[in-house]
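re: that chain from earlier
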Amino acid sequence: MTYSNNIQSYGYAVPMLPAGPYLLRTGAAGAMIAGGWAAVTDLRRMREGEISRDDAIKHTVTNAAIGAGAGVLAGTAAHLARNHPLAGVAVVLAAGAGALYLAGQEKSEEPTGETGN
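^ sequence. v structure.
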């Protein structure tokens, strides 16, 4: 059903969550971006001898999975912001707060406590 540009119709309800193929595309885009960037940087690090081949593969796959999740979240937030503005604002704010929280976390490789000497 098509409408002319000057007539706005609310004759249908937009679902709260986007369709599966849309989420699949946004997840694939996120995985390609994050995984591609990790692959490029890990290849350089591997050639310089900083990490092993297995570590580079593990890191790249992990980053691709994180990118897929981020892509799905960003796609869902975009869908909500486009079709349900108030819910979209809440999701974008929550995602931004979560990203800032995760970015502020420090990954400590050394255990705390005694040194063992």
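The chain has three helices and no strands.
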